[in-house]
Write a structure and sequence with these properties.
binds zinc ion, two-stranded antiparallel sheet, elongated, 5-stranded mixed sheet, Muramoyl-pentapeptide Carboxypeptidase, domain 2, alpha+beta, 334 residues
Length: 334
């Protein structure tokens, strides 16, 4: 027995010795080669040397976004973390850059925006002294959107029936019992009077205050419509419906401060009334809540007929600074 063990141990020792020799040999060769090989000079990566052509937008991730953030930070537009994730902060930075460079402020970095950002002509952010925000801290417009529902059980103050307040024959009321907040209705009357003085005579109110229960009916109806017309599955139909009909609790009509203004028999967007509204509603304390250039922010397709009463000071400010309500309210949190 003993000789066998001894033989085995000897074999192991020889093996270990052999392997060590092999390793030493390899190390020697490597050291010799390293000594005669010139050390590679590692060029610093060309950070934002040239723009990517990829469209970067909310949700984009990666090194291109990191480069974009780095550049926007250098220009003073971005103050967040350079994390390669295109989120809300990056988007706001892109919007501000676009606004300051005469580009369409859609918050997406496409070829044109990227070319401007990486060009020698890219300007540093001009810090406009924070404009004197109207009515700071009090009476801020209420925000109701996809992520900010109306408080449960909320009923707007001072709801009145339009038929009791609006002068006869001034407006067509699609629903004769339509109601809204008194102050908003009074502003609406002034606005329509001004429009009519400008030659835009015919106006209809299609919607005013709407309860969450009514919103649920409208939403369900839209889902059923889509299932029928587009042969969508219930789930797809719900997703599609959310693009145009707010979920119960998330419609601005719950505030009693929103109206849908239409012209019977016409697609409102094509009417001179729509143009008038776009140009003048802010003078009367209204904003167009869902516009094409803010679609990414509001999450709604453009609705040229939907006005929201916010009061004149707020409306003017948003008009002058091209802000959606979400962006405007964010200024108060800065
Ligand atoms: Zn509406």
């Amino acid at each position: 027995m003993l000789p066998v063990v001894l033989i085995l141990m000897a074999a192991m020792l020889i093996g270990v010795f052999y392997l060590r020799n092999k390793t030493d040999e390899a190390n020697r060769v490597y050291a010799a080669e390293a000594a005669i090989t010139p050390k590679p000079t590692i060029a610093p990566p060309a950070i934002y040397a040239k723009p990517t052509d990829a469209l970067l937008r909310s949700g984009s991730v990666g090194v291109e976004v990191q480069q974009l953030q780095t550049k926007l930070k250098e220009l003073g537009f971005y103050t967040g973390e350079v994390d390669g994730q295109f989120g809300g902060g990056t988007k706001t930075a892109v919007v501000h850059f676009q606004e300051q460079h005469g580009l369409n402020p859609d918050g997406m970095a496409g070829a044109e925006t990227l070319a401007a950002i990486y060009s020698a002509g890219a300007k540093h952010m001009v810090v406009t002294p924070r404009p004197a925000l109207p009515a700071s801290g009090q009476d801020l417009p209420m925000l109701v959107n996809r992520t900010s529902s109306i408080p449960e059980g909320y009923t707007p103050r001072d709801l009145v029936a339009l038929k009791d307040v609006v002068p006869r024959d001034m407006l067509i009321l699609k629903d004769p019992d339509v109601r809204a907040n008194r102050q908003a209705v009074e502003a609406l009357v002034k606005m329509i009077r001004a429009a009519q003085a400008d030659g835009q005579q015919v106006w209809q109110v299609s919607e005013g205050y709407r309860t969450p229960a009514r919103q649920q009916e409208l939403f369900n109806a839209q889902v059923q419509q889509l299932i029928k017309d587009e042969q969508l599955s219930e789930e797809s139909a719900r997703k599609a419906a959310e693009k145009t009909v707010a979920l119960p609790g998330t419609s601005e009509h719950h505030t009693g401060l929103a109206f849908d203004l239409t012209v019977p028999g016409y697609f409102f967007g094509d009417t001179p009334q729509a143009q008038w509204l776009e140009n003048h509603c802010f003078e009367h304390g209204f904003i167009l809540r869902y516009t094409a250039n803010k679609e990414e922010i509001t999450g709604f397709l453009p609705e040229p007929w939907h006005v929201r009463y916010v009061g004149e000071a707020h409306a003017r400010f948003m008009e002058e600074h091209n802000l959606a309500l979400e962006e405007y309210l964010a200024l108060y949190r800065q």
